[in-house]
Amino acid sequence: MSDYLVVFARSAEKELDSLPVEISSRISPRINALADSPRPPGCVKLKAKQNQWRIRVGDYRVIYSINDTTFTVKILEVNHRRQVYERRSGGRVCRYGITANKYRELSQRRTLLFGTTDEAICQTSSFSEERMTAIARCFFSSVNQD
To answer: At what angle do helices 21-33 and 10-18 cross, to 10 degrees?
Structure first.
């Protein structure tokens, strides 16, 4: 008899259905096993999110949450590791330690403020690229704190 009830988020169900049969046939038994043991060996608690866990099935990840009061395991996401982590971080991290989307947004804001781009600043200023990187880090860190 299962101790926990496994339920799927609608998006996770669609993600699992869209996977090739050979991959979904490897993932499904691992998901069903969560009913007996919601914290199996090898599972990892995600630091960024409260009460969310991850299991690995090859290159695929199953992200889920556990509710111990109602004895339910909710499957939140089933996808390739690259897609799971990009989506959770808001995109790939660029060279300044922020996501590419955030960098693009800040670059557009800076272009509007100063009327120039990174390349134009480097070409017209006496600063080296290392100095410009340090200036950009300071700029981005001050904007990120807002």
So the answer is: 140
- Single-letter amino acid code for the residue at 70: T
Rounded to whole angstroms, the Cα distance separating 103 from 36 reads: 44
C-alpha distances out from residue 39 to 9, 48, 57, 91, 105, Å: 19, 18, 15, 28, 39
Secondary structure class of 67 (helix, strand, coil): strand
> How far is the CA of 139 from the CAs of 11, 54, 105, 107, in angstroms?
37, 35, 13, 10
pLDDT in tens, 9-36: 999 999 999 999 999 999 999 999 999 9
Query: What's the pTM value of the predicted model, to 2 decimals?
Result: 0.59
Asked whether the beta carbons of 35 and 6 are under 8 A apart, the reply is yes
Tokens of 38: 């919601």
